[in-house]
Design a protein that fits this description.
This protein is mostly beta strands. The protein has helices at residues 2-19, 204-208; strands spanning 23-30, 56-63, 75-88, 94-106, 113-114, 119-120, 128-137, 145-151, 157-158, 164-172, 183-185, 194-199, 220-224, 229-236, 255-256, 262-263, 271-275, 278-282. The strands form 4 sheets. Strands 1, 3, 8, 9, 11 and 14 form a 6-stranded antiparallel sheet that branches. It is elongated, with a radius of gyration of 27 Å. The relative contact order is 0.28.
Length: 283
């Protein structure tokens, strides 16, 4: 009977190890995403992640360990979706945008300031994770809420604990075609963790390769509220993996089936056995 208990314990430990690797689902809201009610309030270039009125916009948003607190005790965090909510207050035309999204894990929690001219600066950005065109059918949610979603299912982003998630989002309208006013993103109560760039002729990508970058320019928002954001992610549990099971009575060179019966190697029927502390399948 003791052998049976030890064999079953070994199998349970193996199962526990396998379960520890299964991906679990998590979600964080920055602001009350489900019941958002406050829209951005300020100049038109103070809205992140984009403003449909301008042909070219760029934004950088900092989600610090404070906003990401629920992720900090998780293993192998992979961000797989970022969602933003906006209110269509009167646009009925389709809005077409070329979208590029860059994700980085950084140590900083605030935007840097150029000590020579006391201007805030954007972060240099790389690690392109999304590059696509999207048409927003505004008439479908005329005077209703809409969503902007960065779906990373095919390119999840690994975020180590204790790091800030830097999101750089670039939107370009075809043919420098600016849109209409009347569309606003909902905001959280987290201020100065976003910066924005707006222009009707020059893309944020072109600006980022100019001599002016990373200093702010005219048409730049420097103390912008984070939009309400929903961050979906996967992770693995904190169960300690067991690489090897050692059981004194199961390491004598014999083979034991799940009932604890002992067999020699020369006469093994098909089945599952424990041999020297490891599971063996005989077919």
């Amino acid at each position: 009977m003791k052998k049976v208990y030890m064999i079953l314990a070994a199998l349970a430990a193996m199962t526990m190890t396998a379960q520890a690797q299964d991906a679990l689902q998590g979600s964080i809201q920055v602001g009350d995403y489900d019941n958002a009610s406050e829209l951005y309030n300020g100049s038109y270039f103070d809205m992140a992640p984009t403003n449909f009125y301008l042909a070219h916009t760029g934004s950088q948003m900092l989600y610090t360990p404070t906003e990401l607190a629920d992720m900090q005790d998780k293993n192998n965090v992979q961000v797989n979706k970022l969602s933003f909510k906006f209110l269509n207050e009167g646009i009925f035309d389709d809005m077409v945008r070329d979208i590029k999204v860059y994700l980085q894990a950084i140590d900083e929690t605030t935007f840097p300031v150029n000590p020579d001219n006391n201007k805030k600066q954007f972060f240099a950005f790389d690690n392109l994770v999304l590059d696509y065109e999207e048409t927003f059918p505004m008439l479908d949610y005329y005077y209703e809420d809409g969503e902007l979603v960065f779906d990373l299912a095919n390119a999840p982003f690994s975020l180590p604990a204790g790091k800030t998630l830097l999101v750089t989002a670039v939107f370009d309208a075809p043919d420098d075609d600016n849109g209409e006013t009347g569309c606003a993103f909902y905001v959280s109560d987290v201020r100065a963790q976003a910066m924005t760039y707006t222009d009707n002729t020059v893309s944020f990508i072109d600006y980022a390769t100019s001599e002016t970058f990373p200093d702010v320019t005219t048409g730049t928002g420097t103390s912008v509220y984070l939009p309400v954001t929903k961050i979906d992610y996967t992770y693995t549990d904190n169960v300690t993996a067991i690489d090897e099971v050692k059981a004194a009575t199961a390491t004598d060179g014999a083979y034991y089936n799940l009932m604890g019966q002992r067999f020699s190697q020369a006469n093994l029927p098909a089945g599952i056995y424990i041999h020297n502390g490891k599971k063996v399948v005989i077919r």
